[in-house]
Amino acid sequence: MLKWLRQLSSPKDSFTKELYPIIGFIPNNIEFYHQAFCHSSIGLQTYGNNERLEFLGDSILNSVITEYLFHKMPNKNEGVLTDIRSKIVSRKTLNTLAKKIKLDTLVQTNLGDKMPSSVYGNAFEALIAAIYLDKGAEFCKEFIIKKIIEPHFCLNELETEISSYKKHFIHWAQKNNTNYSFKLLSETGQAHNKNFEIGLFLKDENIATACAGSKKKAEEAAAKKACQALTI
Amino acid sequence: MLKWLRQLSSPKDSFTKELYPIIGFIPNNIEFYHQAFCHSSIGLQTYGNNERLEFLGDSILNSVITEYLFHKMPNKNEGVLTDIRSKIVSRKTLNTLAKKIKLDTLVQTNLGDKMPSSVYGNAFEALIAAIYLDKGAEFCKEFIIKKIIEPHFCLNELETEISSYKKHFIHWAQKNNTNYSFKLLSETGQAHNKNFEIGLFLKDENIATACAGSKKKAEEAAAKKACQALTI
Questions:
Q1: Could you count the other beta carbons within 10 Å of the beta carbon of residue B38?
Q2: Which end of chain B has less Cβ packing within 10 Å, N or C?
Q3: What does the pLDDT look like over A94-142, one tens digit per residue?
Q4: Contact present, A178 and A203 (Cβ < 8 Å)
Q5: Which of residues 55-114 of B touch A (CB under 8 A)?
Q6: Is B204 tagged catalytic?
Q7: Can you tell me the distance from the alpha carbon of A169 to that of A225, in angstroms, rounded to the nearest whole number?
């Protein structure tokens, strides 16, 4: 503790100072953490970039969440558990979470304005691997449960949350033996700036229409409108 | 040990007798293992079916293999590690492995002759979860490394093994800036017994042709012929 207080008082340790409020403990080996926040676009990588750590962290995160769900929801089948897990570890969720816990301020890149959000989610996974390598499996598991899952996710909400309205609509239609189809109504604009208009039909009736820059997004938007209109 | 020898001498314990040569240790709680080998098609499931265990075992297996590769191949990038891991945990590999270690004799199903091979790979994943729950994380990790990875896989061979000739061919074509295309030459047969003839063209020259029951398989076969002909 004294050693760490001395480190904090040194101006050289701005990285450790910034890191502590995020992780809540004093690292044994700070090099893992430097590596975790170093994107491959950085030219001079003193400790290497975070791609291998991301590979390791992704699987550690996945297995800790899997085991957590397995024990916390003993009566749910593997389909429900898989669905909840995929909502927690989705690229979008991890990117948002990384920003929420302020990892974005620590990430080093050379991407300038062209930074995709995935850089943050990847750094988060790399941080998990850094903690695992630095403090061991049990400590890392505890960190993921106490600092990530429990404060940021509500399992009951995740269970009922609709991650894809298209899937949700199709599930409803199949359950009710109802024929449906997504039809492309129009396609306008230039190659790199297309606009797709998709109609969702129940039997022959158009129940929702939506436009977007990709067919996938327009279908999702049309399905959302249909789910809302039909209160599915 | 004496307790287990007594159990072995009892005719009731044919399951334990069959299980021991496969896992090489005496379980603390045999119920996990009964559950691991019970397919959902079984009507009377005394210990439940193996679907939740499979969900857990899959992620444990994945994370142990990931960590193993991370440490064993410190100079390989995450792309190479991901590729090797996917070869080890592929459905096909796990199904074959499950039969190799004779898990198939223990699996209980009600599927009769319609048994897909995936039943065995899934039971293998469920067995991993049973070991994890029964004997703990460290024991299970050791089991996966010493009884599965090291006796059954050679990392150097896996690194050079071509898992998809189509991918391998496309990679070669892109690297050499060569235009290629897979073209459907003919489609014959009835709906459930189709035969697709695919030609692989380099610029306009047909360099390989193959037939199969699906376009995907025919493309893979044509790519394999092309790779062999061009010694790629």
A1: 24
A2: N
A3: 999 999 999 999 999 999 888 898 999 999 999 999 999 999 999 999 9
A4: yes
A5: 55-56, 58-60, 62-63, 66-67, 70, 77-78, 81-82
A6: no
A7: 10
Return the residue of B nearest to A52 by Cα. Answer: B78
Alpha carbon distance A56, B77 (integer Å): 12
CA distances to A187, B3, B14, B146 from B24, in Å: 63, 16, 15, 11
Question: Is the four-CA dihedral B204, B207, B210, B215 of positive or negative sign?
Answer: negative
Query: Which residue in A54, A59, A81 is closest to B63 by CB distance?
Result: A59
Domains of chain B: 2-160 (1.10.1520.10), 165-229 (3.30.160.20)
In eight-state DSSP terms, residue B213 is S
B169-179 pLDDT, tens digit each = 998 999 899 99
Residue that the structure tokens 């977007």 belong to? A212
Lookup: tokens for B113: 């002759």
Summarised one tens digit per residue, pLDDT across range B9-32 is: 543 578 999 999 999 999 999 999
Are the C-beta atoms of A88 and A158 separated by less than 8 Å? yes
Angle at Cα A221 formed by Cα A218 and Cα A223, nearest 5°? 110
What's the CA gap between B52 and A232, in Å, rounded?
28
